[in-house]
Amino acid sequence: xxxxxxVFNTGIVPVVVLNNVEDAVPLAxxxxxxxxxxxxxxxxxxxxxxxxxxxxxxxxxxxxxxxxVLNVEQAKLAVENGAKFxxxxxxxxxxxxxxxxxxxxVIPGCVTPTEIMKAISLGLKVVKFFPADVYGGIKAIKAxxxxxxxxxxxxxxxxxxxxxxxxxxxxxxxxxxGSWVCKKDDIANHDWDKITxxxxxxxxxxxxxxx
Length: 211
Ligand code: 3PG
Prior knowledge:
Elements: H1 3-10, E1 12-16, H2 24-33, E2 38-42, H3 48-58, E3 63-67, H4 72-80, E4 86-87, H5 93-101, E5 106-107, H6 113-121, E6 126-129, H7 137-144, E7 152-155, H8 164-168, E8 176-178, H9 184-188, H10 192-210
Parallel strand pairs: 1-2, 1-8, 2-3, 4-5, 6-7
Helix pairs in contact: 2-10
Residues 15, 67, 130, 156-159, 177-180 line the site of 3-phosphoglyceric acid.
């Protein structure tokens, strides 16, 4: 199965912010128990690379990637620590080219036709659409998918249990991303059962919408 097929199958890429390395493995297990085998650990905290390394070693069933990757140095660090894919809020050509050259799936953020055309010219088929709620949500994705039928989107930013169905039912959406399944407070409180429940709810909606 290709990376794109795997992302599509799971349908959701949780956006994770971790402040403590000790939380990485319990969180990965909580998501996995809820049916989610994808995680994007954001480079917004110091321990991101270490968290990726721990999950990739100790919970190999989870496809762990790096998010909020702003430059090629962070991309290299992430991959050295076991990241299986790279997500960026915007498109940094050097990072995308490096990732492609090293066979690492890369999903840069693109919200305008010009940015999407840049992604296509670099050979990409999946782009992040962020912040989805601010840039027109599903309405914008529908409009963009007319000229860019070959592109699949990963909308994130304002996606939640309440609106994920609207995104997932569109054929141009590869998967949705978001932080609501593993909120900062739930991680801080080690409320792994809640994270599992929120994951199960999301997976259920995705499955029901796609059948
Ligand atoms: C991201 O990086 O994709 C966003 O921070 C996720 O947005 P959300 O917190 O609204 O889900």
